């Protein structure tokens, strides 16, 4: 399974779950795409490219993992309809940024909307 197939399958599942739970299909959602890495400079450059691609970018935060390692992470955020095509377009764009700077794209999430 390719990265794109993996993210497409995960995206379908997230959307399906939200709609099955009664989330509103007619509104825009705040989609938070998650990035992480060990190198602050690389993460900062990725965040700048996300900003240039018209995503809002959160400040980098430190996250302690269970194994004691500390990673840095940030979110690239965009308002979007909750549909597979729109979100996959974001993911394709963001995967290229992650690859360019050697950081991890860790998926996306959103919130239930009434």
TrEMBL record:
It is found in: Cytoplasm. NCBIfam families: PRK11191.1 (NF008393). Pfam families: RraB. The keyword Glycoprotein does not apply. Interacts with the C-terminal region of Rne. Transmembrane segments: none annotated. Belongs to the RraB family. It comes from Oceanisphaera marina. Keywords: Cytoplasm. Residues 8-110 form the Regulator of ribonuclease activity B domain. This is Regulator of ribonuclease activity B. Globally modulates RNA abundance by binding to RNase E (Rne) and regulating its endonucleolytic activity. Can modulate Rne action in a substrate-dependent manner by altering the composition of the degradosome. It comes from the Bacteria.
